[in-house]
Protein: HMA domain-containing protein
Organism: Kingdonia uniflora
Amino acid sequence: MGALDYFSNFCTVTSTRRRKRRTMQTVEIKVKMDCDGCERRVRHAVTSMRGARSVEVNRKQSRVTVSGYVDAKKVLKRVKSTGKRAEIWPYVPFNLVAYPYVAQAYDKKAPAGYVKNVVQALPSPNNPNEILTSMFSDDNPNACSIM
């Protein structure tokens, strides 16, 4: 039976190729837009993509948000085909970052309430300076009995 099943796979008429399903995702892109025509051109390019469910264009923040069954690289390529400078949205809300005002994260061009999404170095918990600062912390009830 095993050999018969093996050869029957070669003789079948129907195709059993499976397509890889895309996942529902939200893609955010930074696009330099100056006027209503730029906004309309970018919106039309992205809404005509297959799989795009919703498109939000915020010209004030230079931000395009696309939700649907789309690939981020394909959306970026489609936006760049309109002749606009575009990149993946590089900002995160500043309350999600440990040190939002370090030189690498703080950006004057960022929209209000956002900083760049960069990897930040956190102090080591075994660092002697960190141990001393946490020793006299108000958050630690066992820190110091003198206080």
Summary: Helices lie at 2-11, 36-47, 72-80, 128-135.
